[in-house]
Design a protein that fits this description.
11 helices; Rossmann fold; Alpha/beta hydrolase; globular; alpha/beta; 42% helix; 273 residues
Length: 273
């Protein structure tokens, strides 16, 4: 466990393993701890770097501040500088994927391969209003109300029904977290930071080989969102996972790990006759 400072703000990160570096970027409700089920696989043959964005996990909370995604992009650049990373592959899901896209646009020379799960090129009215519903639920300070507003839609209906024991255990863990006013204020700031996100006109400038992964039952960032991204990134490769929702890495963990590590570590990229 490590941290560094950006002026008066602390950034928490984990740096484990050896080999080709992979930076994992959190979804909006996640932290470095959220990736625990995947750590052993990812660090077996790679250097795995996880980081908490501001207002996540153990990084500084930006109480009373308004900000955009740019502050998180700059945090990521500072992490690269701190670790003296000349180049790394980046895996991002949802919010983390959006930060990854902007980082790949602003720091092309630092990105090897890019993996984007459930990621969009802009915050459309659908997603903006979903975020506003999260904020309204958070203002009630009722953890169960926030859970019921934010969590069911993250999963595919089939997974939610068939994994009721797992879901009930998750609810027991999450409702106390969602009852914490500090956490709910963090989530409000993170959600609002996404409202201005829009790279539609420049996303074609990404130079990295990019794997785009959709989940066919994603009701937050539907498949059309990834179709837009895939058509505009020149070196894009698009995969759709059937029977999974927005939290596809939890529903299909083996597939998540296989897609990430296979794409990042593959040496043969062209077929020569």
């Amino acid at each position: 466990m490590s941290h560094f400072w950006i002026n008066d703000k602390q950034v928490f990160f984990e740096d484990e393993g050896y080999g080709t570096p992979i930076v994992l970027l959190n979804g909006i409700m996640m932290s470095t701890r959220s990736w625990a089920p995947f750590v052993e696989s990812f660090k077996a043959n790679n250097r795995l770097i996880r980081v908490d964005f501001f207002d996540q996990g153990q990084s500084t909370k930006l109480i009373g501040q308004n900000y955009t995604h740019q502050i998180q992009v700059d945090l990521l650049k500072s992490l690269f500088d701190h670790l003296k990373l000349e180049k790394a592959s980046i895996v991002g899901i949802s919010y983390g994927g959006e930060i990854a896209i902007q980082f790949a646009l602003q720091h092309k020379n630092l990105v090897d391969r890019l993996v984007l799960f459930n990621t969009a090129a802009y915050t459309n009215p659908w997603l903006k209003d979903i975020g506003r519903a999260w904020i309204a639920a958070g203002k009630t300070r009722n953890g169960e109300a926030y859970y019921n507003t934010a969590i069911p839609v993250i999963y595919s209906p089939k997974f939610y029904e068939e994994q009721q024991v797992w879901m009930k255990n998750r609810k027991q863990v999450l409702v106390p977290v969602f009852s914490n006013p500090e956490f709910l204020d963090q989530m409000e700031r993170l959600t609002l930071s996404s409202e201005s996100y829009d790279v539609k006109d420049i996303i074609h400038e990404i130079e990295a080989e990019t794997l785009i992964v959709s989940a066919e039952e994603d009701y937050l960032t539907p498949v059309d969102n990834q179709a837009y991204v895939a058509k505009r990134i020149p070196k894009s490769h698009w995969v759709k996972i059937p029977g999974a929702g927005h939290a596809s890495m939890y529903e299909k963990p083996l597939l998540f790990t296989t897609l990430c590590l296979g794409f990042i570590n593959a040496k043969d990229t062209h077929y020569h006759i």
